Amino acid sequence: MRYSALKILKEGLTGNKGWKPVWRELDPKQEYDVVIVGGGGHGLATAYYLAKEYGITNVAVLEKGWIGSGNVGRNTTIIRSNYLLEGNQPFYELSLKLWEGLEQDFNYNAMVSQRGILNLIHSDAQRDAFARRGNAMRLSGADAELLDTDGIQKMCPFLDFDNARFPIQGALWQPRGGTVRHDAVAWGYARGADSRGVDLIQNCEVTGFHIENGVCRGVETSRGAIKAKKVAVCVAGSSSRVMAQAGMRLPIESHVLQAFVSEGLKPVIPGVITFGAGHFYVSQSDKGGLVFGGDIDGYNTYAQRGNLPVVEDVCEGGMAIMPMIGRARLLRMWGGVMDMSMDGSPFIDKTHIDGLFFNGGWCYGGFKATPASGFCYAHLLARDEPHPTATAYRLDRFLSGAQIDEKGQGAQPNLH
Fold it and tell me: CA 126, 132, 138, 142 torsion: positive or negative?
């Protein structure tokens, strides 16, 4: 079924009795060409592009819970391509370009809203750093503008421009950045993959890998053994636990990242705003709630919940740049488990076990990378070679000294 304005009108006039389920409920088959472990955004996108771009449809996506129950539904919905380093910037620009055509591509309203992202500058050194970042963005074909204080005041007059401790001296502005409805992304990719013949298997936890003579032959699951020619893992914060079942130790730590939504307010924030003297980022949803977040909790955990000191720290960052939000009431909060790599950059690569592939280490960048991650992972699975924009995302880069330290703060996940 294709969605359209005409279809909505027809169903409205006939009692909405013609809608079909978005995807099928299936039992797993005994064997597939590709088994994708993880039914989040990256796993669903990989399955979608395998079917759409390469015609590989004998594919199963295994999700231990329900589709969209992980980080794809537990984030602050921001999309952007304002990265610095050569290993990252072209990849995230590819992702942003895919976001721009996503809804037409899979015929589903993902609420892509390119209202821009504003990275505030609070010091001369930060202005130099952001100017360098903006130049790197433009060299890769992305859009970037360096704004002065007057330009920011016209856009966001509600910010605290009189703050002596954190003076707002300018900003790096990417007009094409913005937000996307996160759960709609999961549903859209799931629907698109299912319509092309991919099997989406929910409540199917992978409990082990079937490895013979250095070759992965399939997986053991809570619903029985499944054979596969290739097994592709993309399970975000659970990466270390899942890959440990294959005897692998990853350069990844799992940390919880909290996000928050306030009560509904009248429209005030034009796009996405980030605080440059701390860690705070905020946008406003279509329902009026302020969606914001900040630092990870800083301790290793697999729990999808956070702690109160980080709540205080995040709210302090928001109050520092716009004290007006101090009277807004918090509606809800949640936590997602981040797979923090040792250099702040991800992996899309083969493993040393033939037939076993890994995608992970996305840190804060997982949601915005969803289209490009799936696109590049599908390319790797179909052609057995990395996509040109993902050649730096190797698992062995720490052995070879080819780290991509995007933040420039050392190999400490808590600093990313």
Answer: negative
Provide the token pair at 123.
């010091």
Please, what sign has the CA dihedral across residues 216, 224, 193, 67? negative
pLDDT score of 21 more than 50: yes
Distance CA 407, CA 400 (A): 20
Whether residue 411 is predicted with pLDDT greater than 60 in this model: the reply is no
Instruction: Tell me how far apart the alpha carbons of residues 298 and 257 are, in angstroms, rounded to a whole number.
Output: 9
Mean pLDDT for the stretch of residues 48-58: 98
Q: How far is residue 350's CA from residue 385's CA, in Å, rounded to a whole number? A: 9
Is 300's pLDDT higher than 90?
A: no
Q: Give 177's Cβ-side CA count (13 Å radius).
A: 28
Q: Which two tokens stand for residue 133?
A: 């970042």
The gap from C-alpha 177 to its chain's centroid, in whole angstroms, comes to 14
Paired tokens of 177: 């950045």
Report the alpha-carbon distance of residue 291 to residue 263 in Å, rounded.
10
pLDDT digits (tens, 9 = 90+) for 326-375: 999 999 999 999 999 988 899 999 999 999 999 999 998 899 999 999 99
Cα 13 from Cα 18, distance rounded (Å): 11
Say what the pLDDT of residue 410 is.
Answer: 46
Q: What is the separation, in whole angstroms, between the first and last Cα of the chain?
A: 43
The whole model's pTM is what? 0.95
Q: Which two tokens stand for residue 163?
A: 């703050």
Looking at 67-165, list the stretches that DSSP marks H as alpha helix, in order from N- to C-terminal side: 89-100, 102-106, 124-139, 149-155
Nearby residues of 133 by Cβ (< 8 Å), 6 or more positions away: 82, 83, 84, 144, 172
Residue whose C-alpha is closest to residue 193's, from 255, 105, 65: 105
- Tell me how far apart the alpha carbons of residues 246 and 356 are, in angstroms, rounded to a whole number: 9
